[in-house]
Specification:
single chain; alpha+beta; Aldehyde Oxidoreductase, domain 4; 7-stranded mixed beta sheet
Length: 721
Amino acid sequence: MTLTAIHREDAAALSRRTFLKASATAAGGLALAFVVPDRSEAADSAAESGALNGFVRIEPDGRIHLTIPMVEMGQGTYTSLAMLLAEELEVKLDSIVPEHAPPNDALYANPILHEQSTGLSASTRGFWLPLRQAGAAARIMLVSAAAQRWKVDPAKCTARDGVIRDPSGQRSLPYREVAQAAAQLKPPAPEQIKLKTPGQFTLIGTSPKRLEAAGKVSGRTRFGIDAIVPGMKFAAIAIAPVGGGRPKQVNQAAALAVKGVRQVVVIDEAVAIIADHTGAAKKGLEAAAIQWDDGPNAQVNSQGIVAQLKAGSERAGVIARNDGNVEQAFATAARRFDAVYELPFLAHAAMEPMNCTVHLRKDACEIWVGTQVPTTTQSRVAALTGLPKDAVILHNQFLGGGFGRRLEPDGTLLAVKIAQHVDGPVKVIWSREEDIQHDIYRPYYYDRISAAVDDAGNPVAWHHRVCGSSVVARFAPPLFKNGLDFDAVEGAAQPPYAFPNILVDYVRVEPASITTGFWRGVGPVHNVFIVESFIDELAFAARQDPVAYRRRLLTHNPRALAVLNLAAEKAGWGQKLPAGKARGISLQFAFGSYLSQVAEVAVDAKGKVKVERIVCAVDCGIAVTPSMIDAQVQSGTIFGLTAALRGAITIKDGRVEQSNFDSYPPMRIDEVPRIETHIVSSTENPGGLGEAATAIVAPAVTNAIFAVTGRRIRKLPIEEV
């Protein structure tokens, strides 16, 4: 995601001391540098606890509380962001107590996203400067407070491991003893904050134990589904199976006859059974024997949606990039190649199904939920209930998987609608079936791509037409400009290769009744598959090795070339494999990081595909935590590979046909290939990595399948060949 301006409202919310500098980059993006916010009112009210700024609070017992602006959903944010602060604060990582940030865009907005939102692989790259500056600012204030007590020059004092020493080295004070005094000092000016250079790092670049791991292993960690509130009731829900449908008939008497059932709530799009425990609620829901009015979308099916997309792809779209003269290059080229690629709707299927606990009172609404968008959720609930925003109290929980699903507040809003009819707190948990059949899906894409080559097989023209629904138009309308969805073309509009003539356009087609949203990897997940598959097609047509062919197109892009070469080297590219096995390669630049993957794939006589090995080379800038980079590559690869091999949501009679892990199966442990990660040493600022491997794995696998079978995969999922 590249933003070229700061939203006016965001800029207004940042104080002079918060906002330091924003300047346009040479590539037309936005380079941001932030200085940490002054203490919030909440922090000022807790001055006795040593609140030094919006992120750092030191307790009298020496514990250092870090308010984590991004949510933890398995990606390791609690540890990596704490490391940034601890590095400059000069404390040991295990002295930091991470805690969820309350909803507050002014203090905790991600500088890349301009709101308090966890997504777009933007946590570490967004807070690379702000949290280091927060730690450095707090350290300066603590040292100044100690120097005032000793009546010495603070510039000659030192701090390490949470202890300040005077110039002579004879006197020392732990941070906790000067925290209250430091909290009264004026924060340092931006020019006074000097950050470490990479050669001075002692924590960044290491792989410590994850701060939240012990709680998860012991079972102490509370996810949204674990919330317990005194007097809480439990709700089981059924949502209209067709978008736009409504409950037509509900046997409330039968539901209420079930022991433990207290109430039946019927709202526009759903029915909820309120009970003393989940078991009774589920039995009551079954007894209710709900009949539905399917509404206007009862005839929607996958075949019709694909036909709609196909027709859309045949018309010119909004231009995302137009360099050179593509039309002329096609007219004079030696050869032309054309292809159509299709990628299906995909569900998120996080291990923790959607859930939310709500206690709605006349003067306040208290919510326990795991969400990637706390401020958006707070605002939407305020609008729904008519309450002031500060009367919506959000207790954000750990997330048992997000993948973009919990960027959507729909589950919380549904729970609040139910809570409007319930006296006291109520926990709403979606069944796995409701979770999969009422997801907000990755769009179905129907893309056309063409290339023209010269006599040597070099591409001289490239045209990629992206066709699908627009997530951005629904999710963030101000960013949907002139009919262009910037996310839908990411990975297509700026491929890593040099093409003398390139045209990328976008056609928006919205399928009836199907709501689409961000899915781990978003735009690059579909575009990288198409670009890397088609590059392989051109290499084969030119009778050239796929790696050698790519190298010729990367002389302008040394970082991309480096990861390509590293992946090929570590995978043993060119070394002979047994019959029925082959390697495929892919390359991408997305989320500020460069990746290349090689897949070793076996295809048996019956056409069954088995991915045996994945080798991944990564240049994500400075490697803050190498062990978590490895974990993210493994996680993203498995997530993307699952989708590539078997992921597809299909529609019949307006209904989603998949319902649980039997019909939408995850990859099982015995199916997972060996995954190797090789990190390029870099001094560039960190890029994002949480979604990158999800996007790159499919073309590496399908290119390997072609090398074995000669069959080109242009439609996912792969299943058998």
